[in-house]
Amino acid sequence: MTVAKSYDLIIVGAGMVGALSAILLANASLRVALIDKHDGEYELSPPPAYDARVSAISSQSKRLLEEANVWQNMPQGRVATYDNIVAWDGLGAGYIDFNAGSVSMAELGNLVENAVLSQQMMAQIQRMNNIDLYFNNGLSSYQISDTGVQADLLSGDRIDAQVIIAADGAVSALRTDNGFETVEWDYGHTAIAATIEIDQPHENTAWQSFGEEGVLAFLPLPDVGERHFVSIVWCVPPDDADHLKALPDEDFCRRLHYAINKRFTVVGITRARQTIPLRQRHAKQYVKSGIALIGDAAHTIHPLAGQGANLGFGDVMALVEVLSKAHRRGEALGAIKVLRRYQRARMLDNMAMAAGMEAFKRLFSTQQPLWVQLRNTGMKHFDKNQALKKKLIARAAGLSSFS
Ligand SMILES: Cc1cc2nc3c(=O)[nH]c(=O)nc-3n(C[C@H](O)[C@H](O)[C@H](O)COP(=O)(O)OP(=O)(O)OC[C@H]3O[C@@H](n4cnc5c(N)ncnc54)[C@H](O)[C@@H]3O)c2cc1C
Q1: Which of 11, 91, 231, 394 is geometrically suited to a Cys-Cys bond with 399, CB 3.0 to 4.6 A?
Q2: 153: Cβ below 6 Å to ligand 1?
Q3: Does ligand 1 lie within 6 Å of residue 296's CB atom?
Q4: 129, 123 Cβ separation under 8 angstroms
Q5: Looking at domain 5-79+114-184+280-366, what is its CATH homologous superfamily?
Q6: Nearest to residue 195, comparing CAs of 231, 244, 228, 241?
Q7: From the CB of 55, is ligand 1 less than 6 Å away?
Q8: With 90 as the cut, is the pLDDT of residue 99 above it?
Q9: What is the pLDDT of residue 400?
Q10: How far is the CA of 360 from the centre of ligand 1 (A)?
Q11: Which of 27-41, 96-110, 268-282 has the lowest mean pLDDT?
């Protein structure tokens, strides 16, 4: 009979959220088995072929990545800072400008390619001796009981632990297999992500247009010499996305130029267009005895405010705090009363963000004249209200919660 190797935790999924949780839980002296079907290798193309998938990283997330000894090792020339957000309504005169200086912050956030962040997390994981990697691997069978988790892996390894963490992304098999119900619906939007070159400096500003052409963001990337680059996230109905994806480069660039209200001329595409269907999902519970959901396995939201991974990192922060405290007290890590502390710490905040994104998306999808007029008037008032802007920025930076 194969003897099982024992851990405190099994984490399934080494995406950005699972990998960060492995590092921080291992920092708290817990023994971690990290499983992924992926091989853990991230090929980076040299700039300007920046990866098409980037994330806006909030101040709170940056602090967590520093704590994990990841941020300090980010390669030179692969992180951009943004200190302004400019958003406008393409169907009216509504305009909002958020500025870091006006709220006494050094920056509003950072833009980083997902592959760069994942690569640095993997490098840190390799430096730690209490994380065992089971990559190109997966669960073949497993049992979760009151005493813990026993798992047989596709590789033939047998492992056990006190608790299993599902960080296996939006279509989490662990969530489905374990009967976690979700509230979910299609946003009726597909995101197109790509890296493009523009004719003028991006001014360290995240530019965002809401209009007939959908929701479009130009997110700053590091300049290469005198050349300027942004990552785009363009959210449009699925049929429009298919059409835009199939357009020749030159026509696509022209459409972008009009969709961003001619603010920039688009010189070319340096990283191919990717399309990602968008769906809102929220698990009704994040925990059951012996198992907890984190990151996209627990919730997915519209990317219009760039908050999905930041919420996942918020889950990590709460989970690490709960489990490391329970470990110090000698409590069973998989006990439902322990895991519920994590759920209590996160669910309300995550739900509030999801509701906010839904309301925002609905408000900015409509072209009904009355709503267009109302939202433009609202934007103008909002832009003048410094106190409200400060509050929203603090929330987006992860420096305050809704609750
Ligand atoms: C267009 C777009 C733009 C976005 N922009 C931002 C942004 O600016 N800022 C932000 O904060 N968020 C952003 N997000 C959200 C963010 O990308 C996600 O929230 C984040 O990547 C989720 O990370 P995760 O680790 O939870 O899941 P994933 O990244 O999906 O990782 C899941 C991991 O689990 C593994 N896995 C899955 N199933 C199994 C299995 N059965 N066995 C073993 N391994 C398995 C996968 O291989 C993968 O490595 C954006 C999302 C989109 C779509």
Answers
A1: 394
A2: no
A3: yes
A4: no
A5: FAD/NAD(P)-binding domain (3.50.50.60)
A6: 231
A7: yes
A8: no
A9: 60
A10: 22
A11: 96-110
Query: What integer pLDDT is reported at residue 403 of this predicted model?
Result: 45
Nearest CA to ligand 1 atom 29: 15
CA of 16 to the centre of ligand 1 (A): 7
Task: Dump pLDDT digits (tens) for 308-335.
Answer: 999 999 999 999 999 999 999 999 999 9
Q: Please state which of the ranges 140-144, 235-239, 379-383 shows the lowest mean pLDDT.
A: 379-383
